[in-house]
Amino acid sequence: MGLGSTISPAAEKKVVLMWVGQAGMAKRVASGFIQRMKETAPNVEIVQHREITDMRQGEQLFTQYETSSDGIVFLRSNGAEFLGRLSSLAKVPCFVGGCNNPQELGAIKNLDAPEGMITGVTYFIPFEKRFQVIKQLFPNIKSVGLLLQKGHSAASIDQQGTKAQCTRNGIAYQEVEAQNLSQLVDGTKQLSGKADVFILSSTALVLDNLMSLLVITNPSKTPIFSYAADRAEKGATAELAADDEKLGRMLAESVVDVVVNKKPISQVPVKTDPNPQLIINEGQMRVLGLNFPDTILKNARMVK
Q1: Other Cβ atoms within 10 Å of 286 Cβ, number
Q2: How far apart are CA 75 and CA 20, in angstroms?
Q3: What 3-state DSSP class applies to 93?
Q4: CA distance 69 to 49
Q5: What is d(CA 192, CA 195) in angstroms, rounded to the nearest whole number?
Q6: 104 - beta bridge partners?
Q7: d(CA 215, CA 16)
Q8: Are 100 and 93 in contact (CB under 8 A)?
Q9: What pTM did the predictor assign?
Q10: Domains of the chain
Q11: What is the biggest distance separating any 2 CA atoms in the chain, rounded to whole angstroms?
């Protein structure tokens, strides 16, 4: 179980920050959250349980803190799914973050006016907006290969959204749904040369093994587009993603609104990054022989 830690001088309220499993995204959201909480509500005690081993232990911690805290922040898509199963039974205000669309995950029905005890933030970007960028970058695209981790909480959302956009835009859809690295590598090899662009879904197995994928995709000159943040700097050709630390700060503001200022959750909408940024890897552009229009490059952040 992740070790608990506490941040608070002379606490007046207590908020628990927790997540199950390892995730760089959750760490970045947590960083922004803690920084902003220190600035806006220094007297709120933050009890942290990071990278809890499994959901059973996460559920035990949740039950423990439901009666001994003023709010629980349960990060990641699996946390949002768990909160969704509670429905209206939660005894304390709960907050999601570092997760895909909480509506699709079953946590919240109305993102603009949450109907129960749950609100928060999401990295979700509408798939239509993602594909507008993909078509600008790769105007001759005829097929995509979506790389997925089988069973991951975010997999079906990325799968359904990508399929729908491919159908709408006349793009052939292919996928690799893998349970482990070997299946991911083998499936990507089979699609190499058949997909014009590979898409990294927001699933841990895929994101954590980008270097293994580049060994396959670079020789075939196939670009990689990431749905998740922090991949362009690691070798993906491009990404359109929310700023996780910004979302963490926005999450803190929602927690303060509810826990400190007693604002009804129905008046605290689920927040998204209003300005997700296109990030392009300049080195990968050269490796793949790509030339993007100046109209795109001037609005993108370039990394090497």
Answers
A1: 11
A2: 8
A3: coil
A4: 14
A5: 6
A6: none
A7: 41
A8: no
A9: 0.85
A10: 4-123+243-267 (3.40.50.2300), 127-241+277-303 (3.40.50.2300)
A11: 61
Q: How many residues does the chain have?
A: 304
Burial class (CB in 10 A: 0-12, 13-18, 19+), 219: exposed
Contact assessment for residue 215 and residue 188, using Cβ atoms and an 8 Å cutoff: no
Tokens 């920084």 found at: 35
- Which pair of structure tokens corresponds to residue 189? 């090899």
**From the centroid of its chain, how far is CA 290?**
27
The residues that bridge with 301 in the sheet, in sequence order, are 279
Q: Per-residue pLDDT for the chain (304 aa), expressed as one digit of tens each?
A: 455 555 444 458 999 999 999 888 899 999 999 999 999 999 999 999 999 999 999 999 999 999 999 999 999 999 999 999 986 678 899 999 999 999 999 999 999 999 999 999 999 999 999 999 999 999 999 999 999 999 998 899 999 999 999 999 999 999 999 999 999 999 999 999 999 999 999 999 999 999 999 999 999 999 999 999 889 999 999 999 999 999 999 999 999 999 999 999 999 999 999 999 999 999 999 999 999 989 899 989 999 8
By C-alpha distance, which of 90, 38, 82, 28 is closest to 65? Answer: 90
Beta bridge partners of 22: none
Q: State the alpha helices, DSSP H only, in the chain.
A: 24-40, 55-66, 77-86, 127-137, 155-169, 181-191, 204-208, 210-217, 244-255, 282-288, 294-297
What are residue 296's phi and psi, to 5 degrees? -85, -45
Distances from the Cα of 196 to the Cαs of 105, 119, 184, 218, in angstroms?
Answer: 30, 38, 18, 12
